[in-house]
Amino acid sequence: MPITVTLDVMLARRKMKSRELAESVGITEANLSLLKSGRVKGVRFSTLEAICRALDCQPGDLLAYEPDSGSDK
């Protein structure tokens, strides 16, 4: 998939553990782990907002677009 989640990078920059972020945002560590690994099909804007608030960042700091090399579009 051409969209990658860079949440782990932002956590490292903020020197925050996943457990702390999950508690702050109000989601389980398991769901945060799925999000970090990119194994989710979507994320609620309210969750994204809470993550950005907790990490003091923008949504673009958490997501990256990397086009597939074999894609025509």
> Quick one: overall form?
globular
Number of helices: 4
Backbone structural class: mainly alpha
Question: What is the number of E strands?
Answer: 2
Taking all residues together, what is the mean pLDDT? 92
Encode the helix/strand succession as letters: EHHHHE
Strand content of the residues, in percent?
5-15%
Q: Major sheet: size, sense and barrel closure? A: 2 strands, antiparallel
**Order of neighbouring strands in the sheet with most strands:** 1-2
Low-confidence stretches: none
Helical percentage: 40-55%
Radius of gyration, in angstroms, nearest whole number: 13 Å
Task: List its salient traits.
about 70 residues; globular; mainly alpha; two-stranded antiparallel ribbon
Task: Describe the protein's architecture and organization.
There is one protein chain. The chain has four helices and two strands; from the N terminus they run E-H-H-H-H-E. It has 73 residues and is mainly alpha-helical. The longest helix has 11 residues, at 45-55.
